[in-house]
Amino acid sequence: MLRKENLPEVDEFVVCTVTSVKKFGAFVSLDEYGNKEGFIHVAEVAAGWVKYIRDHVREGQKIVCKVLGVDAKKNHIDLSLKRVNEHQKRDKIRQWKNENKAFKIFGLLAERIGKDMDSCFDEFGDQIVEEFNGLYEAFEACSVDPKVLEERGFKGDWIKHFCDIAKDNIAPPFVMLKGRLELTCSSSEGIQRIREALKAGEEFDGVQTRYIAAPKYEFTVKAPDYKVGEEIVKESTQKIITTIEKAGGTGKFYRMD
User: Fold this and answer.
1) Given a cut of 90, is residue 5 above it in pLDDT?
2) CATH says 87-169 is which class?
3) pTM for the complete prediction?
C-alpha cells in the first residue's frame, strides 16, 4: 500500500479493518496509515439507537470511516461510521483500490530499473505523489500523455519506463485536452485579478490551470470524451478571458493538443 506517514486529518475518509468489537464501540486498524489503531464509539456506528453493535460491524470487516478527532500526543484517532454516505464510501474504496494497484505497478517499475521501492520513492516517487495528488493519478496521466512528467519538470532515465508501464497497465477513462493561456493585467491588483479569472474557469468540471511563467498558464481539461471536452474548453476559456477583460486586462488561449 502507498506510504502514508504520521496521522490522518480531521474530516478525512479512511479505509479501516475492524479488529475488535465491544459493547461500547469498535476498534479498527487504519489500512493506509501503517495499521494505526482507531476507535468508533457505539454512538458513531449507526444512526439511531444501536441495540446490537455486531449487527453493524464485525471483526475482519473492511469499512470506510470519517475522522472526527486526532490526538497526536496519545496517538488516538476517533472515527465515525455513520457519517459516511454510500457515495463517499464508493469513492473512497475506488480510490483505495486504485492506489493499491498503483503501488503494485510501482513495484514493477522498481524491478525494471533495478532499484528497491524505497529508493524509488525517495528519488522521485514521493515528489510524483505530491505533484499529482496520488500515484495512481500519475500513472493515469502518463497513460494519456507520455510527456506529462517532463512537462512537470521531472528528469531521469526512469521516466520512459514509468510511462511504458503506465500504458501497459492503466486504461485511461478519459481524454485530456491541453492549451496555454496568456493573461495580463496592469492594474495594481493585477495578480489577484488573474487568479480570480483562472478560478472562474476552474469552476467547470475537469479544468485545471497551472502557472508556467508570466504571462503564461497551462490549461488542461479532463473529460469523458472529446465532444464533452471541447465544450468545456470553449466555455471555460471564454469565462477566463471575459473575466480578465472586465478587470481591464487581456487574455488569449492557444490549443496545444
Assistant:
1) no
2) mainly alpha
3) 0.61
